[in-house]
Amino acid sequence: MKVHAFWLLLPLAGALSCSSAGGPVAVSSPDSKINVHIEAGEGGAPRYSIYYEDSLVLEPSALGLTVDSTSLATGLELASAGKVEQVSDQYTLLSGKRAACSYQANRRVMRFKEKNGIRLSVVFQVSNDGVAFRYVVEGEGGRIRSIPSESTTFNFPAYAKAWLHPHAVAQSGWEHTQPSYEEYYSIDIDAGTPSPLGQGWSFPALFRCGGHWLLVSEADVGRQYCGSHLGHLSPEGEYAIAFPQAPERMGPDAPLYPESALPIRSPWRFITIGKSLGAIVESTLTSDLSTPAKIPDASFVKPGKAAWSWVLLKDDSTVFQVQKRFIDYAADMHWEYCLIDAYWDTQIGYDKIRELSGHAQSKGVGLLLWYNSNGNWNTAPLTPKHRVTDPAIRKEEFARVKEMGIKGLKIDFFGGDGQSFMNYYQGLIEDAAAFGLMVNFHGATIPRGWERTYPNLVSMESVRGFEFMTFEQANANQAPTHNTVLPFTRNAVGPMDFTPVCFSEIPNIKRVTTNGFELALSVLFQSGIQHYAEIPEGMARQPDYVVAFLRNLPSRWEDIKFLEGYPGKYAVLARKGQGRWYVAGINGEETIKNVTLRLSGLGSSGSGTLITDGETPREFSTKNVDGGPVELAIKPHGGFVFVTDAE
Questions:
Q1: CATH class of domain segment(s) 2-288
Q2: Which residues of 162-197 are buried (b: 16+ CB within 10 A; e: fewer)?
Q3: Which residues contact 351 (CB under 8 A, 6 or more apart)?
Q4: Which of 7, 498, 585, 591 is deepest in the core (most CB within 10 A)?
């Protein structure tokens, strides 16, 4: 028995091995349903294929990368395939879809012969819910090496369909703040469709291949590497890894592509696979594959719910009296936090923030403060600026606000996925942890398992969230469809600060979702700290049972189950917390959706309380359910929540 890093590896007696000379090397999942075949390929260009049971779900796809000017994608000779080993890991997440996580996989390391003094290994790990692989580059000497490109591809069958997020042009958009992963998904398109913005497709990428679902993303991006996405062109459905665009760095001399002394480990590239969308929704592969917690004491990290004035009341609400009112609102709702957004430094000031913090503490509420990530990568004027980029200055700032009683930080407007930004993100999180501060990134990259490595990272935006619905009517019109895609894509890979739940009318905007739809998002979407869009006046107009529901929602979820749905049409999920199952569903279409809730699979009798839409889109209805299957007709653009009785 040998312990390797944080996984327990055990040799498998009689494990899969090389077939006849020159044939493929294979590794299977523990349940043998997923099988990966790796071949040397013509011209020494290794390729891998994935089968689910007897179905080919990923056709031969390329492996390899380039180090400096040496191609490690062609002309390779296999030195050894290694033995298949068992990987076992159990861990706890403070902010995630499941609290107690368990990971089992079979691991096999493909080692290639040295080329120009460089040795490449490809590590495969195959679990019951998917396939992961990463590159390890080793060699002599301590000089800095660069990786200008990867040759990795994901080759989908021609008949595959896709749900993909267009990757934005760097430094485009409002005040040059892209890419911030805030586009609408292209829904149910043919695999191989070029991206509309010309820069490829962001992770995570969802595909349907016949009767199988696959989600492609990456995890465990360390300081050595950059973030990546899928390329613009994917001929015949073969998608290539693309590295960041030239502006996605913190300065002209800051690293864009991976630069490091050897050894260099790439992120895990992973494909979650299953016959049901439940495999996608319930999988924890993003965190399973990530480095365990680096923070020795995370006792200061407290998931929870937050009041927030900005999304409906905008910049003018960041004043002392309004924020005091929102602190009182959070206390009345039994919510743990209140977020004070941009311009607090000029419109309230540090001394008055200290006073608000004291008032909040007296009410049992913690304050969260907004910061601009600033730098040359955006021209956003919002303040405070220039307080977090320089490590020395930010440590002074973190010490100052911590002494004032502040619990966490929302940092906004990042500039991309270059290696320097990957370093910047992790430096911010680590420094915040040193001062006992939680972190929420906005205008940012996607989660890549950092919520496990750094438990004080409680959420990331990286989504076209509710705030967009307040900007233009076209966004509000897209909301029902858009929201039914997110549980199967963006929120499937980590906490998502969408900022849901609005019952009020939006100034100058007609909201097309019902109040039942909005209430359902409080369960459907997961975030370590869930910031609610609704304001005190709107909440006061709701029935007591709705207010009680939002008061009593668990601050942390223990488990998740997919019940039914289809991305772009509808979604029904169940989350467990405080001994109960909370079921939520939304209908993204313009016709009634009939669903049947069978909760016996959750270990529940099905008895509980149902809240649905009432006679009008702005009304609610509720009833007690004694047990058995629950028949529901979800109204167009409507939704529901169902809470089981305590176990």
A1: mainly beta
A2: bbbbbbbebbebeebbbbbbbbebbbeeebbeebeb
A3: none
A4: 585
Per the listing, tokens 């990568």 go with: 377
3-state secondary structure of 560: strand
**What is the Cα 295 distance to its own chain's centre?**
20
**Amino acid letter for position 507:** P
| CA-closest candidate to residue 270, choices 222, 215, 221 | 215
Compute the C-alpha angle 201/207/212, nearest 5°.
Answer: 165
Residue type, 191: A
CB 536 within 8 A of CB 325: yes
Per-residue pLDDT tens over the stretch 590-637: 999 999 999 988 988 889 999 999 999 999 999 999 988 999 999 999
Please write the tens of the pLDDT for every residue from 105-142: 999 999 999 999 999 999 999 999 999 999 999 998 78
- For residues 551 and 80, give the distance between their C-alpha atoms in angstroms, rounded to a whole number: 58
| Residue 543: both structure tokens together | 């029935």
The helix (run of H) or strand (run of E) holding residue 135 is: strand 130-139
Provide the residue ranges of all domains of the chain, joining segments of one domain with +. Answer: 2-288, 304-551
Lookup: tokens for 23 = 């044939």
Query: What SS3 state is found at 402?
Result: helix
* Distance in Å from the first CA to the final CA of the chain: 40
Whether CATH 3.20.20.70 fits 304-551: yes
Residues 251, 419: Cα–Cα separation, whole Å: 11
Cβ(74)–Cβ(88) under 8 Å? no
Are the C-beta atoms of 121 and 112 separated by less than 8 Å? yes
Give me the percent of the chain exceeding a pLDDT of 90: 93
Domain 2-288 shares a fold with domain 304-551: no
Q: For 421-480, what is each residue's pLDDT tens digit?
A: 999 999 999 999 999 999 999 999 999 999 999 999 999 999 999 999 999 999 999 999
Instruction: Supply 123's token pair.
Output: 């590590």
pLDDT at 1 over 70: no
pLDDT tens per residue, range 233-272: 999 999 999 999 999 999 999 999 999 999 999 999 999 9
Q: Over the stretch 185-214, which tens digit does the pLDDT of each residue have?
A: 999 999 999 999 999 999 999 999 999 999
Looking at the chain, the whole-number percentage of residues with pLDDT higher than 70 is 97
Residue 489 C-alpha from the chain's centroid: 8
Phi, psi of 590 (to 5 degrees): -95, 10
Rg, C-alpha atoms of the chain: 24
Per-residue confidence (pLDDT) for residue 22, from 0 to 100: 57
CA distances from 237 to 190, 205, 402, 565 (A): 8, 13, 50, 25
Structure tokens that stand for 335 in this block: 């919510």
Which residue in 384, 173, 130 sits closest to 273, CA to CA?
Answer: 130
Q: In what order do the strands lie in the sheet with 620-625?
A: 559-566, 570-577, 580-587, 639-644, 608-613, 620-625
Contact 39, 124 (CB under 8 A): no
3-class DSSP state of 524: helix
